[in-house]
Input
Amino acid sequence: MAKPSWLTVDPTGGSGDGTITNTGLEHTGRALRTGTVTVTGDGVAGSKSYTVNQEPHPEFVELDNGAAMSVAKEGGKVKVTGKSNSKALSFAFVGEAGGAEIAASYTAAGKSAANGAEIEGDPGAAAQYNFEVEVTVPENSTVDAVARTIKVSNGGAVSAQIVLNQTAGDAFLNLDKETVTLPWEGTPAQVVNVDSNTSWSVS
Output
């Protein structure tokens, strides 16, 4: 049986007494992996082998954009991407969503899974995988920047958060009338309605 590709042995041969050094590539999966090394000797019947176990990587969730990403004032669809080795991922807003929506499913290791559901084949057991989820953000019609926080977790203690910082919208001011006519008596009052997202004054 050939040794696994993640395992390196040095030297690959020798004569007489010797030492075999074993090293491995970084293991990003969350399950222990095992390989077998076989040693044969010239003129020796059969072979000898030993097992090499490599410890698993702790379960993790990591976001590609770090702790924050920008969203245009117009809103639209943005993708939150990252890496993990979890069996399943959950995506949820922390606090107010402000009209934004997280897609009902996400993609991990090229496969689609429902939000919170296990990924087919559990790719994270063997190695880390890339994931992405789409978030729909409404237009920002206020003059203030809007921050929305999304938490990505394995359904337990392993998680990461990212803040979607949306640029402030444009200030606007509209009146529902261009002209009002008051009676000669001065009353009753005539009303002009103001539609605005910013402070205004009358002079």
